[in-house]
Each structure stands twice: as C-alpha cells, then as structure tokens.
Write a structure and sequence with these properties.
Number of domains: 3
Largest sheet: 7 strands, mixed
CATH architecture of the largest domain: 3-Layer(bba) Sandwich
CATH topology of the largest domain: FAD/NAD(P)-binding domain
Number of helices: 13
Radius of gyration: 24 Å
Shape: globular
Distance between the termini: 67 Å
Structural class: alpha/beta
Oligomer: single chain
Number of strands: 22
Length: about 450
C-alpha cells in the first residue's frame, strides 16, 4: 500500500513527537515511524534511567555519611533489584506517556516498523510505501563498539545493557573516561563495586580544561575509583574471574581483571541502515547526516534532527533542533543551529555544569581573555551542605566583555550554570551579572562575586 502525507517523521525520540504535534496542530497530515522504543535514548537508555540510578547512588552515599550530619543510621546495604525496578518504572512511565500522547494526536498516523529510503522523500516500511512532501529524520544514536583486540571474544556491557542489571558487579572495568563512563563509575562504586576506569588519553574528559579534568579525577579517586590513563594498547580477553583488560600504561599493572566490562567510548548515529545513499542524502565519515544551518540535508525537503546530525549529542540539543525547524517552517523565522550557546553537564556528584567555550577553546579561537575562579569551599551553600569539592570558573572576552564560557564543578553546578547560559543567550556583558541580586543562600549567589573577580589573563 502507498500512502502520502504532508510530513513524514522517522524516529520517535526527543524531537519527533514534538514536531509531529506542531505540524498536526497546523493542520498537516503527519506519519511518525518508529521501529523500536518510543522516547528514544533519553527515555529508554539515557537520561531518565541513568539519572534515576544516580539518585539511588547518591542516597546510598549520603546514608553512609549520615553521622557527619548528626544522623545515626544502621548498616547501609544495597538492594539492586529494587534500584533496577525503580529505573525500569521511570522508563516505562515515560515511554507509555509518550505513546499515549501520540495515540491521541489528531492528524497523526503512527507506524511501527523499520523505514528505509527508496527515493528522496519516499520510504518503505515493510510492504508499504510512505511518501511525504517533507521528511524529518530523527533516528538518534547508539553506543559505539570500538574495534579493540578481543572485543568480540568476551561479554561486555554498554550504556543500554547495564541499565537493567539486578546485581552489583564485583569489579566493573570501564573502558572510556568521558561523561557516560564516569557517571557509571561513581554510581557503581557507591553501589559497592570495585571500579577501574581505563582511558586511552592522558586525562579524563579530554574536551574539558586540564584543571577541570584534574579536579574530577581527584573527586573520583577520593571515592576509591582506580583511574588508568595513557592506556596505549587496550585489549580484551577471557579470564577465569571474568574479563582481562590489557592497558600497557606507563605505571601500574599492565592488565586489569574485572568481573564485568562496560564499553563507554562514544556514540554512533543510527544511519547505516536507512538507505540514505539511495535518497542522495550525504553523510560524513562517521555516518552523521550533513545538514545546513536550518538542519536541512543535502536533499531538498529532508531535514535531520537530534543525535544523527552530529550538531549536538544531548536531549536538549535535539529539542532545540525541533524548535529551530518548527520556527522556520511554521513561524516564518530564520533560526540557525549556530546561534545556540552550547551547554551540558556531567552528572557525577558533584556535577559539572558547562556553558560556551572552555578556557582552552577560547585561547585557540584567538580571544584575549579575562578570567575568574572561585573554590566551592568559599561558597556558603556548599559549606552548609558539607559538599565543598570543586570550583567555579568564568572566561570573558577582554574586548567585548561578553562571557565566552563557564564551568561550575560543584554542588548545584548543573542548575547554577543556567544563570550564565541565560546571560550568554541574551548577549549581555559580564557587568550585567555583577549587578544581579540572586537569592541567599544559593550556589548562584556567588556568580556576581565571580564576575566581579574577572581579571586579565596573561600567557
């Protein structure tokens, strides 16, 4: 059967259902095609379940610290089946909520199946053909499996398959020292596992400034997590106690033996089985769909949103992709993906909130910079909570006095960073932050003080 619609959306992740709602509200006929789980990565294997697990790990950590606050508890133990069930409920509630929303959307035809392009703006789904005046690709991504020696000879976990675990690994070895790997590292350490992080590069979270990376490493090591950087020859092999991970680091044992191995070395887009070449839709060398400032692909009338376009790797950037496309198509605007200020967080405890450029990136871009830092030990809210690890950092362009970027590694950092993001989005000078009057006692109340401490930086 051949069916024609005003718009066809491939993928029910963050951007797809919201775009479907805008288009159907505008009176358009819309088909939304999903081959697997409604809600995409965020709902099923990403933000929702992982932050639920992080919350359980934080509760265990604070229970162990209770005596510091004058609270007496008994022995703290972990009920992993209950923790996993809590995460599973959050997943299912969110997924079912999205499904109910789509099922009740007037003007939407929801199709389950695997869509493949057979021509520009024409897709096959099983025995049916679906054609749209406009097509929006929103297929997300998945864990990248690195081509390591022995990787196919041993059992391994990814961010998806570790979520439903109902037992705590005796020793979890995590290959990859970036955002996903570090969140699971701290989480499972707090659940009681021995944890080793193996990173090929010289430092953790290499995209961050060296001072941020070093502070994060210090936080994790303080909780008993082993960090093995400069792992120049990572290889996997079966072992009687689980899996042997060869590292060949300059210091320490040349191998680590774990009961479980988690591969956390990045993501890849779900674009390899869509027939993009048949439609003439260009991708880059990593499989990401090439898009212009308005997120249109190389084929007129076809857009790519979310993780599959390589222009952002977060739920909030996928949502903003939807906002850009909807504003341009339905509201007569000219929004561009380059106009958004990048922001993200690393959800270890304490979290790292990031906005804009790092100090290193600002220097590389040729900016003459001014900067200020402040340790969390001088933030009243952090002292009151006895959570004083980390620091704040603000980077400013010396000429324009615009904020180039900021890092807040500390309690509440993932929330406080939005004060910086808002000012950057408003394109206001740092002096506007100096005269803000935030609420006391909060972490954000130190932002005006930080702005007042900005001084020129000399190489």
């Amino acid at each position: 059967m051949k069916r024609r619609f005003d718009a066809v959306i491939v993928g029910a992740g963050q951007a797809g259902p919201a775009l479907a709602a805008r288009l159907t509200k505008a009176g358009q006929s819309v088909a939304l095609i999903e081959r697997h789980l409604v809600g995409g990565t965020c709902v099923n294997t990403g933000c929702k379940p992982t932050k639920t697990l992080v919350a359980s790990a934080y509760a265990a950590h604070m229970a162990r610290r209770a005596a510091e606050y004058g609270v007496i508890t008994g022995e703290v133990s972990i009920d992993m089946p209950t923790i996993a069930a809590r995460a599973r409920k959050v997943i299912l509630d969110s997924r079912h909520g999205n499904e109910a929303w789509l099922e009740g959307m007037h003007g939407l035809t929801f199709i389950r199946g695997h869509a493949r392009f057979v021509a520009p703006r024409v897709l096959a789904v099983g025995d049916d053909t679906v054609e749209g005046d406009r097509v929006f690709i929103n297929v997300g991504g998945r864990a990248r499996i690195p081509d390591l020696p022995g990787v196919h000879d041993v059992p391994y976990l990814t961010n998806s398959t570790i979520i439903p675990l109902e037992s705590v690994p005796a020793h979890l070895v995590i290959v990859g020292g970036s955002y996903i790997g570090l969140e699971f590292a701290q989480m499972y350490r707090r659940f009681g596992a021995q944890v080793t992080v193996v990173e090929q590069g010289p430092s953790l979270i290499s995209r961050e400034d060296p001072d941020v990376s070093a502070a994060v490493e210090e936080i994790l090591k303080a909780e008993g997590i082993a960090i093995r950087t400069d792992a120049c020859c990572i290889r996997l092999a079966k072992h009687g106690d689980g899996v042997s991970v060869g590292v060949d680091c300059r210091d320490g044992s040349p191998e680590v033996v774990g009961s479980h191995v988690l591969l956390a070395v990045g993501r890849r887009p779900n674009t390899d089985d869509l027939g993009l070449d048949v439609a003439g839709i260009r991708t880059d060398g990593r499989g990401y769909i090439e898009v212009d400032s308005g997120l249109q692909t190389s084929v007129e009338g076809v857009w790519a949103l979310g993780d599959c376009n390589g222009r952002g790797a977060f739920t909030h950037t996928a949502w903003n992709d939807y906002e850009i496309v909807a504003a341009n198509l339905l509201d007569g605007q000219s929004r561009r993906v380059e106009d958004r200020v990048p922001g993200y967080a690393l959800y270890i405890d304490p979290p790292l909130g990031r906005a804009g450029l790092t100090e290193t990136q600002a220097r590389a871009a040729g900016h003459a910079i001014e900067m200020a830092t402040r340790p969390m030990t001088r933030v009243g809210r952090a002292v009151e909570k006895a959570e004083t690890q980390g620091f704040m950092k603000l980077v400013v362009d010396a000429g324009s006095q615009r904020i180039l970027g900021a890092s807040i590694l500390g309690t509440g950092g993932d929330e406080a960073i939005h004060g910086i993001l808002d000012l950057m989005n408003a394109d206001q000078p740092v002096s506007m932050l100096k005269w803000a009057v935030p609420i006391h006692p909060t972490v954000s109340e130190l932002l005006p003080t930080l702005a007042g401490d900005v001084r020129p930086v000399r190489d």
